[in-house]
């Protein structure tokens, strides 16, 4: 029997986050010093931490500019930190994207651009095509966020309605060499989809973006759709990218392996289900709950005590039934908590590895067989709260919120179901 299950789950989360530590990852992938200038650009939820880590590891002068989310940031000596909104873009992001594009222009082939990219950069770098406004990009992002589309599909659309995404930032830096170091938050770890790939060219086309718009019935204006139809991002065989290099330096796969190692040290059998699970958050939550319940009640599966681990990025489709508070991890876990009501010997944690689930201050939440009952005892209806996408309120009532604070990295969702 595990004496302190929540403490153990917290330890596993911390092990996963530590495995994605920006300094260690960057230090292992440092490029050679150039003949000319070193220009640093960073964008994403982990931008300031990655920039600070690079400054610490780099032996030489540099000129840096990073765009991070509003909130606490890491202190940098040679890098200016700009902040913008996430998940819906704001005017600060518009100005920051323009500054970033200006920062890489006028370079020579002897210069080096180091791009530090992490999840969240798509929203932090709004740069709509000429003739369009910030309001157009906000409307596009809101439509995508409400659609339930996976992140790869959303970013196919975003990179075709932008002057900075889809490799365009790297094209602006030519003829300088660009080395991109990526902390991946996307299932499959395709760097072209992390932050919509501002320095990574991609083979998707405008037709691919239009297919997403049609498949998810995105309510976009005719002008926006036509702009996407006429857009083509630079392709990998473009001469501007010939000397560039792209490295994924941290990912969910590595972090889940670290959590599994920590579980073994604690005498718990780990089973990694997948590091790339996508789908509707509440449905994925129910599937995880069903697996955990089967193992707990039937004694099947790995030797107990055991922990089921998974990563990836689920989605939440908002409908006419209202929009509450909470992110995809809380919604995932509230659905699981309802299905695990009164089930013993299972304790679960679902959290975002960047420390922020959605737009709230919690990383995620815990649940066990008593969570749904505690919500009801505090005056809430778990099913009604789930229907309203108000999982934060549900876990606030049951006092099951998990708060880690910003972690300085982002390798997407972390889920752990401890059995026995």
| CATH fold annotation of the largest domain | Rossmann fold
From the N-terminal CA to the C-terminal CA, the straight-line distance is: 6 Å
Helix content: 25-40%
Give Rg in angstroms.
22 Å
Walk me through this protein's architecture.
This protein has two domains: 5-16 and 253-419, MOFRL domain (glycerate kinase, domain 1, 3-Layer(aba) Sandwich); 21-251, Glycerate kinase, MOFRL-like N-terminal domain (Rossmann fold, 3-Layer(aba) Sandwich). Helices cover 38% and strands 18% of the residues. The chain contains 16 helices and twelve strands. The chain has helices spanning 5-19, 22-27, 47-57, 91-103, 121-124, 134-147, 151-158, 168-173, 206-215, 222-230, 252-265, 281-298, 328-339, 371-377, 382-387, 391-398, and strands spanning 38-43, 63-69, 79-84, 112-118, 177-183, 245-250, 269-277, 306-312, 346-352, 364-368, 401-402, 413-419. The strands form two sheets. The chain has a six-stranded parallel β-sheet, with helices on both faces. Strands 7-8-12-9-10-11 form a six-stranded mixed β-sheet, sandwiched between helices. The longest helix has 18 residues, at 281-298. It starts with a helix and ends with a strand. The mean pLDDT is 95.
